[in-house]
Design a protein that fits this description.
The protein is mostly helical. Helix content is about 50%, strand content about 5%. The protein has 5 domains: about 10-105, Orthogonal Bundle (Death Domain, Fas), CATH 1.10.533; about 110-190; about 215-315; about 320-380, no CATH class; about 400-610, 3-Layer(aba) Sandwich (Rossmann fold), CATH 3.40.50. Strand 1 and strand 2 form a beta hairpin. The model is unreliable at about 185-210, about 385-400 and about 450-465 (pLDDT under 50).
Length: about 600
């Protein structure tokens, strides 16, 4: 497999010059403008004015995507454009096994639009021009049309936004062009949805020599590459420092101190060293949670659900790394001056940001123990008691004091026992003694998922929503650091039964979504005016039994012990709220009832109205 090894600056300049001349002679400029679009710093105007390939390669060098130590993008270019006849004046460049090179810097989507440029014929370009432009534009070739259509969002990485364009392709019998964008969707259906055909019959002609596992692995690899690129686009600018800091004990980050488009190189290096793979990516989820980027967290979780893969716990962010990040994240120039002034080793480095200063201190063994963090935090006037957001489950349990563990165990056993009969439902009002098993009547609701947080009208809510189901929703909740879910619908649709079903499965260990949590099911109407959720929960607990349970280890008042636990250890709690419309007059709104300091509470409310 072809791989890049650092070459001298002279050899690098020669290689860049040779490849620029080769592609200029082949008149590939507009193709490479399209292919390199994600990595160029040029504006659209500057890109349009670029007259030769060397302009593009120099811009790639300036953005950090191309250097003497990493010229993978050149190998990607040769592989995608199939210019295997290219030879430079630099020895062994490109290597003889260039055909075996695995493309890593140019995304699957970018490769698809390149293939589209190859597919579109001159008359098809004219047809698309007349369909989408009035007056007609003067496109140099198919590549310039695609570039323009991308800028106008006619062609987009989001498949759903391309429905109109794909319809145009089909209507005008450009089936080859349409196939480029729908092949991966059909590939996914072959992997995820077995049909009556055997596997060999389901494969396309080009896939006949691949087994099911081969195609599955290739599909997942493609999706993982897309995930990396999407994540790299989130950690831009100052947030790139956050990414490098989180990973500095996983890989050597000295070569990645500048952003300049190196985010994807950093993630590629993480994969090259085996720290992440399409099946092992928990550290990416940890970073998303720790840095507070909900968009990044959503991307990783959606990848897990869409591809039916579970996170592996062998690569996690250390508790040390988390705690140090919490101290640093809000630091500015004043804190930087304090640090540079108080550590002699930093006076020679003249660091311009606190993240680089800390990396130097870590390298010099001056900031690599909990005691060092305490000293460092004291210098900056920061606290070291922040909640560790992504601690592993065993480490999180270790943070519970002996009395906390006893309280949690008691509450779990107490609530599970009380919810054991949750599966029995009453039926007709004329026969109150007749009960039915919830398993016999529960039907998974057809749910519409919407992420809008602001109030919107019903039509907008329906338009934004997308179909989902209970299994999908529970998986989303399971892997999130925190989650509040609101379920709305007409009365009698089954929302209360849904909550009882979830509660019963928790109590009987039939579902592991909340296996390590204490779950409470409450109806809003049971919360009295002036009372909180915690007051209501404590009121349902037999405090006399609890007092006998803990009398040998604590003399504190039982009610206060439980309240303190729920407030201070709210991350151990899950709340299901039913009947939001039944909130009593003068009672506080549900969100005002939540007094947890650190609770990733699942708030599932019931509103009796149409959606």
């Amino acid at each position: 497999m072809a791989s890049t090894k650092e070459i001298s600056e002279d050899d690098f300049r020669q290689l860049v010059t040779d490849i620029a001349n080769w592609y200029d002679r082949s008149e590939y400029l507009t193709r490479l403008k399209l292919l390199y679009k994600d990595h160029l710093n040029m504006s659209n105007v500057e890109l349009g004015n670029a007259k030769s390939v060397i302009d593009l390669l120099q811009d790639l060098t300036g953005s950090g995507s191309l250097s003497s130590s990493n010229f993978t993008i050149l190998y990607d270019t040769i592989k995608i454009t199939k210019q295997f006849g290219f030879k430079s004046n630099v020895e062994n460049q490109p290597p003889e096994d260039i055909k075996k090179h695995v493309v890593s810097m140019l995304t699957p989507y970018r490769q698809k639009v390149y293939q589209l440029g190859l597919e579109l014929k001159e008359d098809e370009v004219s047809t698309l021009n007349s369909l989408y432009n009035n007056p007609i534009k003067k496109y140099q070739d198919s590549w310039s049309l695609i570039t323009d259509f991308e800028d106008r969002k006619i062609i987009d990485e989001d498949f759903k936004k391309m429905e109109k364009f794909l319809t145009s392709l089909e209507r005008n019998e450009m089936t080859g062009a349409k196939r480029i964008f729908i092949d991966d969707v059909e590939s996914k259906e072959r992997v995820m949805k077995p049909s009556s055909l055997n596997w060999e019959q389901q494969l396309s002609p080009t896939d006949k020599d691949k087994t099911e596992a081969d195609v599955d692995a290739l599909y997942l690899k493609d999706k993982f590459q897309t995930l990396k690129y999407e994540l790299s686009n989130i950690y831009k600018g100052q947030f790139y420092k956050w990414l490098t800091f989180c990973l500095c004990d996983k890989i050597c980050v000295e070569d990645f101190t500048r952003d300049d488009g190196r985010r994807i190189l950093l993630l590629n290096e993480l994969q090259r060293t085996g720290k992440i793979t399409p099946y092992k990516f928990t550290v990416l989820l940890d970073i998303a949670i720790l840095t507070g980027f909900r968009e990044a967290e959503d991307l990783v979780i959606q990848y897990m659900i869409d591809n039916n893969v579970e996170p592996v716990d062998d690569e996690r962010l250390s508790l040390f790394r988390q705690q140090l990040f919490q101290v640093l994240r809000d630091c500015g120039k004043n804190e930087l001056r304090k640090v540079n002034h108080n550590y002699d080793v930093l006076k020679t480095f003249k660091s311009t940001n606190i993240w680089d200063s800390v990396l130097i201190l870590e390298r010099e063994k001056l900031l690599n123990t909990p005691a060092h963090i305490d000293k460092f935090a004291h210098l900056l006037g920061k606290s070291t008691t922040q909640r560790l957001l992504v601690a592993e489950s065993t480490e999180r349990i270790m943070k519970l004091s002996p009395i906390d563990k006893v309280i949690k165990t008691f509450l779990k056993e107490h609530k599970k026992q009380s919810y054991q009969d949750m599966h029995l439902l009453g039926t007709a009002v004329f026969n109150e003694e007749h009960k039915v098993n919830i398993a016999d009547v529960f039907t998974d609701l057809k749910l519409l998922q919407s992420t809008k947080q602001k109030q919107v009208d019903q039509a907008t809510r329906r338009q934004d929503a997308k179909p989902t189901n209970l299994v999908h929703v529970l998986k989303m909740i399971k892997y999130r650091s925190s989650c509040k879910v609101l379920i709305t619908g007409k009365g009698g649709m089954g929302k209360t039964t849904l909550l009882r079903h979830i509660t019963y499965n928790w109590a009987t260990n039939n579902d592991d979504t909340f296996a390590d949590k204490v779950l409470f099911l409450l109806n809003i109407r049971d919360i009295e005016p002036g009372k909180t959720i915690i007051d209501t929960i404590v009121g349902e607990i037999d405090l006399e039994i609890f007092a006998n349970h803990i009398k040998k280890i604590s003399n504190e008042e039982p009610k206060e012990l439980i309240k303190t636990f729920m407030i201070e250890k709210g991350n151990e709690i899950v709340i299901l709220l039913d009947g939001l419309d039944e909130l009593k007059q003068d009672a506080k709104k549900p969100l005002q009832l939540l007094k947890f300091k650190s609770a990733p509470v699942w708030l599932l409310c019931h509103v009796r109205r149409s959606i």
